[in-house]
Please model this.
Amino acid sequence: MNKQPVVLEVNKVTKQFHDGETTTKVLSSVDLTVYQGEQLAIVGTSGSGKSTLLHIMGTLDVPTSGTVMLDGEDLYQLSAARQAEVRNKDLGFIYQFHHLLPEFSALENVAMPAFIQGRDKKQSLAEASALLERVGLGHRLEHIPAQLSGGERQRVAIARALINKPKLVLADEPTGNLDASSGDSVYELIRELAQQLGTAFVVVTHDYKLAAKMDRQLTMKDGVLQQVAEEK
Ligand code: ADP
Ligand code: MG
Model:
């Protein structure tokens, strides 16, 4: 079994959406433990609740019941201010669409979470530059998102997710918008950085081939997470 320390613990999480008379049950009882530095893939068909779970793991949505503990802190018992701090400092997010700020350079986009944290500006820019170098974009520091390819934009988004050295990075279909070869290289990068930095990554994807490259795979089905049979 995994002997690494636990980063995140999801316990009996349920989620229902209410819209007037209609109730949509999405998560029926999700249990999940994420260990330090591990790379976990969550697969499942569209509409199975993968994004909903990821949002709940990242304080972007509230569970109907159950708890989420990040490094021993119960995320949904925290003040809004502390939650925002955790989101900025301990968590990183990568989305299908990069969500970079269009008017800022790659360098500024990556440094932004460090600025928000109030870290020294010069130091933040130096770290952002080093991270961009690491994701192969040292020659694109001053380009704005519109001047980058799709794969390059996702690399910037990965660097941005890592600038504050989070404990956990949550990625929702990070390669969903890329061609196969850019998708492969984005995954390679995630794996490499997770290993080097000891950051845990949870990646949601519907691409089973990419998921198979991660340390562990789980399937979202019928509102619960299930083991995927080992094929290795
Ligand atoms: P996935 O990411 O696996 O494709 P989602 O987590 O986005 O699935 O959505 C799971 C289900 O929850 C879908 O049936 C979706 O329609 C429903 N859902 C998601 N968000 C809301 C919402 N804000 N209100 C009502 N239903 C929602
Ligand atoms: Mg989704």
Remarks:
- DSSP finds seven helices and ten strands in the chain.
